[in-house]
Design goal:
By secondary structure, the chain is of the alpha/beta class. It has two domains: 167 residues, 3-Layer(aba) Sandwich (Peroxisomal Thiolase, Chain A, domain 1); 150 residues, Peroxisomal Thiolase, Chain A, domain 1 (3-Layer(aba) Sandwich). The chain is 34% helix and 22% strand. It is built from eleven helices and 13 strands. A five-stranded mixed beta sheet has the order 1-7-6-4-5, sandwiched between helices. It has a four-stranded mixed beta sheet with strand order 8-13-12-11, with helices on both faces. A two-stranded antiparallel ribbon has the order 2-3. A hairpin with a 3-residue loop joins β12 and β13. The radius of gyration is 18 Å and the shape is globular.
Length: 322
Amino acid sequence: MIVGTGVGIPNKILTNHDLEQIVDTTDEWIRTRTGIETRHIVEDGQATSDLCVEAAKNALDDAGLLVEQVDVIIVATISGDVGFPSAACFVQKKLGAVNAYAFDIAAACSGFIYGLDVADSIIAMQKAKTVLVIGGETLSRITDYTDRATCVLFGDGAGAAVLQPSDGNRGILATLLKSDGRLDHLLYMQGLGTKCPPSHQSVDAGAHFIRMAGKEVFKYAVTAMGEAAEQILKLANITVEEVDLLITHQANYRIIDATARRIEVPSEKVFINVNKYGNTSSASIPIALDEARKSGLLKEGQIAVFVAFGAGFTWGAAALRM
């Protein structure tokens, strides 16, 4: 069960009006197509692990736990500090979590749900008592600000959740994970890997930036997230009326709305903050979760459903009693 949450959000804000000065776009165009108004981006020198550490500290404080009590650190990210070691190892070092082992998950926007599933399994096998699951990204570092189709979408941030064994009432009711690597060409970053190692040519070609076939990704995301939302209700043996809050990956407003409509969740039960943060990939669900808890929208004992879709393609869902 989740016993604490926290976020790490950069102070710097990039508005739609700022983007109007960079690329051929308008505030109205961005808002009407995505619902995004602002996004937060890191300052020079800030890395993904810095945001993750801030989120982790806040989550541990919220849970009333010491860092020495953490057994496992899982970081979901596609924008780690370096090629290796993992962002999770940097987080472990900066936190001083000397008793924890740490590793990353690269499942893009679905990463936090993947992390929850892994954490739940580790706890269920009684191999750990306290697991820290973090979704953190600095997508501004891999965003092409000459590409108006993608640069308006992405922001930076981190969200964390502390998981411990269920008390018998609260906890993860069900998880669902899916992948389809056949569609990798629709959303990817080619550069910096072994297939396209860094070179003057790869940098000049912009190979280290996010590339996305937006219309195709939208189509697959709406279908996959809608189906995952339907399936998780069956797996958790709950009805849509029992769901207190739906938190989807905050990709854009139209995808969120389409997912909610698929399972007929009323708008007042759908959490949206994409307008403030943009698409923060793996960080979007834990950031939304923390805001929902701290604002009183999601209380202890209530049921939350998470749904996400990302590069890979990967997608998934989770149902929890908070």
